[in-house]
């Protein structure tokens, strides 16, 4: 949950590092720091708050001499120790020989710290990370890589680190265990970071480290060993993300940009994956032959947050279309409840970042119990993607805003294609498959129609932006959509919002309804609409305002409710997709009206890599 960057080469190091952590700020932004190796010594500058504060401070101190060739930088999301300058990274040993930036959690840090203090080491912070440079100093006998490896062998927990040493100018060492590290390979320059967002401006050629890898990085070569100091080889990959996608592209917030990108991101998710002639999907990443598909007798979906809501829709797809018993589990719950899985169970992780600790642990638990595992991820080469070795990338491009939007709709589209493929390996006919595959092609157009109504939605949002509580209710495929709408609103506007099954309202929550509590009812013209209309009437009887999502042309809804979010006509399978986009826009414009920091909501980070 922190952003780390290291650079060695001939560019203006300070600029590369500061630009890099600015690109990674969505991973954490409560403090930041930089360490430059200048004339044989470290110059360290730190600041509390966002990267902009550090940039200003570095500017006041001068950008450093052109002779600087190596440096590291960090933007933090605090796990141990409050966001203070002392706790900001980089951290150094007592003799200032080594500077380290770290992403992860060292579970045995207090034992290590006590042991090091007894040996005379002086600690300046409350962080777990600070034990790393002191351990390296402890093991250093003129061999940089060996000292780092010995230090890492002492650590229990997770780390993604970059280390610089004043005795080895021009060199960096990077290592990972449970937190991502990627190396950008340039011409006589290397940039190493938590993810490719910091790298795309400089090179498209990257090396993803695996857990246990330790990389010795020079400007013109990378040597990788494992944690036992044995050389290993890692291939290079090519990033296909366009740098323009990383910038805001003229939108006020990344969230709005990413909402508007959804017709394109869905197109990318579906591209080349529908076989209309045979009415099926082509998902080569699953590496499953027809007999493997037929053998699956149960699916368990493990995910968190928005990805969990996508999984809930996936359950309906897999059961209704493919006839496969499917459970959806909050990942942390799954991993600790000693789940029952079998060799014909498919454990499916859904994760935009591919780094969510609970989801990763759930998949490892399922794998250990003999289940087949697969993942639906966005970030290529992410830890969960590589833990499962099979799966489907959603190709949504970088999702910068903490609130997940385009990843959700692409996850749902991929789940629908997976269900189609599994269904066609069972009783689903070619004709039924052709109809559904043609429907899937329509998703971008359906979403665009909702985006085209943004002005209407903004007007409704402004009208209700002063509410302190909201309910979101839905049935069937629209029930997870209601949960997702509530999550979007609460996480960016800080309004208390609860998603509920429409039928559940009268079993308690209806006691909370009064004229100050608006209810967003998802009453598109699909299965369950009439029952939801009854629930709307129950809400109106308690004088709660009702905002409804309704199918275009269903004019009766205007008389029944206070405001209508119009959704294009769809089948029940596709209904959640344009509907959630309307709820994303509703949440966005309410948060904007309330002046909230939409892309960086308080207390949140984009990737939750701790339990
Ligand atoms: C989504 O808006 C939230 N920011 C959060 O719930 C997120 O979906 C969750 O942390 C899971 O992240 P992942 O998809 O990267 O695993």
Keywords:
single chain; about 600 residues; alpha/beta; Glutamine Phosphoribosylpyrophosphate, subunit 1, domain 1; Rossmann fold; 3 domains; eight-stranded antiparallel β-sheet; seven-stranded antiparallel β-sheet; about 35% helix; binds 2-deoxy-2-amino glucitol-6-phosphate
Summarize the structure.
The protein is α/β, with parallel strands linked by helices.
Commentary on this structure:
With 611 residues, this protein is α/β, with parallel strands linked by helices. It folds into 3 domains: 3-239, Aminohydrolase, N-terminal nucleophile (Ntn) domain (Glutamine Phosphoribosylpyrophosphate, subunit 1, domain 1), CATH 3.60.20; 251-441, Rossmann fold (3-Layer(aba) Sandwich), CATH 3.40.50; 448-611, Rossmann fold (3-Layer(aba) Sandwich), CATH 3.40.50.10490. It has 21 helices and 27 strands. The strands form 5 sheets. An 8-stranded antiparallel β-sheet has the order 3-2-4-1-10-9-11-15, with helices on one face. The structure holds 2-deoxy-2-amino glucitol-6-phosphate (AGP). The site of 2-deoxy-2-amino glucitol-6-phosphate has 15 residues, from α10.
Distance between the termini: 11 Å
| Structural class by secondary-structure content | alpha/beta
Which segments are poorly predicted (pLDDT under 50) over 5 or more consecutive residues? none
CATH topology of the largest domain: Glutamine Phosphoribosylpyrophosphate, subunit 1, domain 1
Q: Assembly state here?
A: single chain
Using only CA atoms, what is the Rg? 25 Å
The number of helices is 21
Biggest sheet, spatial arrangement of strands:
3-2-4-1-10-9-11-15
Number of strands: 27
The portion of residues assigned to helices is 25-40%
Assigned CATH architecture of the largest domain: 4-Layer Sandwich
- What is the CATH homology-level superfamily of the largest domain? Aminohydrolase, N-terminal nucleophile (Ntn) domain
Shape: globular
Provide the list of bound ligands, each named once.
Answer: 2-deoxy-2-amino glucitol-6-phosphate
Task: Describe the largest sheet.
Answer: 8 strands, antiparallel
Mean pLDDT: 93
Our count of domains comes out at: 3
Proportion in β-strands: 15-25%
Briefly, what CATH class of the largest domain? Alpha Beta
